[in-house]
Structure formats: structure tokens, C-alpha cells
Amino acid sequence: MIIDFIGFCIINLFKAAQKIVKGDISLKNTINQAAIIGYDSLPISLTISLVAGAVLSMQVAEGFIISGADAYIGGLVSVALIREMAPIFASLAIGARAGTAITAEISNMVITEQVDALKALKVDPIEYLLIPRLIAAVIVVPLVTILAELIGIIGGMFVTNITVDLHPRLYIQSVWLYTDTYDIQVSLVKAAVFGLLTALICTCHGLRTRGGAKEIGVSTTKSAIWTAVTILLADLLLSWIFFA
Which of 111, 128, 142, 165 could form a disulfide with 188 if both were Cys (CB 3.0 to 4.6 A apart)? Predict the structure, then answer.
């Protein structure tokens, strides 16, 4: 079952890549999907990143101040957020919010035979349903991640100022000193990969739905689990490639 689904995803990704190369892209549909995937998921993604930055700085600030390493607080928070926390948390939030919505929508289209109607009209479901979501996710998820990183760093700054009275200027100097352009580039690559995986998995789960209304919930649950596990495994692989 797992191998069968992985094969189904790879085949659809290959078909989508062929059509993208040929230029078979609906710009209007892609823009609509970008708004659904990115804009609608923005509040929860930024909230999670803000809390993550605040909690991380709260945990490390006191110990660093006591040991005289206050100049490293901002850098630690920044590196942790940019390398790992912001891309993962933003992608998981988008998967939970937009990814499950994608699966539910496409599952409903399959069950109500709307996908069969598309095929009867000689409209390829891959071109109409998968490609716009793939492109939108690859573009939008990195943009959300950049905002999440910024919000998380700012949240850490306010918390350290309140809890240990660390001056914001010292915090920002630490962030500027220890944040590398390479880390930001890697975070964008991670976010793009996570976005592609989220759109692909959720769309394919929707297309594979069979049965009645009950199966919509089953497919949605499966897509949420698959997305979360795949993002974490992909993060492990990418971190090993870029930082090991």
C-alpha cells in the first residue's frame, strides 16, 4: 500500500514535470492556489513561529546571561529558527491548514464524479488539479518561511528584553553576526521541497479517494499524517546534505 502510493506520487510528479516543461500551466488557477496555500495559512504559520522564537529565547536567555554569553543569544535563536524551526513549522502549518483542504476538495470532486467529467471534456486532471498546486506551493511556502523566520526572531528579541533585560541592539547585533546567507538559502530550498511534497501528497491522496463521503475524512487524515512524516524525513535528509 505504501509503495503503491509512493509510485503513484512519483508517476504523477513525472507527468506534471513534463507538462510544466511544455508550458501547460494555468496562470489564473496557479494564482488562486497560491492565495489559498499561502495567504490563508499565513496567520497560523506566523503565530507558531512567533511562539517558537519566544519559547526558545526564554529557555536559553537566563543560562546565557549567567554564564556571560549574552552576546550569543540572538545568534542562537536566529540560527535555530532559520536552519530548522521556521521551515518545518511553517510547512507543517501549511500542510495542516491548506494541505488537508486540498485533499478534501479533490476527494469530493472524485466522489461526485467531477474528475471523470474533466476527463470526458478532455481536460487532464494532472494539468488542472496538480500542476497549479505544485507551482503555487513551491513559490509560496518559501515566502511564508521568510516571514516566519523574521517574526520568530523578533519574538525572541522581545522576550529576552522582558525576561533578562537584554538590550534589543545587542540581540540584533548577535543575529546579524551569526546569521549566514548560506543558512537562509538552505532554508528556502527546504521550504520549496516541503511545499512540493505537501502539494503532491495531498493532491494524490485526493485523486486516490474511492467510496463515499466517509472516505473523504479518511483521505484527509492520511494526507495530514503522510505530509508531517515526509516533511520530517525530508528535513533530516536535507540537513544531512547541507550541514553534515
Answer: 142
HSE (side-chain half, CA atoms, 13 Å) at 70: 16
CB 108 within 8 A of CB 170: no
Comparing CA positions, the residue from 77, 82, 71 lying closest to residue 174 is 71
The closest alpha carbon to 86, from 206, 7, 187, 200, belongs to: 187
d(CA 244, CA 228): 23
What is the 8-class DSSP label of residue 244?
A: -
Q: Which residues contact 83 (CB under 8 A, 6 or more apart)?
A: 183, 186, 187, 239, 243
Would you say the pTM of this structure is higher than 0.85? yes
- Tens of pLDDT along 30-57? 999 998 898 888 899 999 999 999 999 8
Identify whether the C-beta of residue 107 lies closer than 8 Å to the C-beta of residue 216.
yes
Domain positions in the chain: 26-243
pLDDT in tens, 15-24: 999 999 988 8
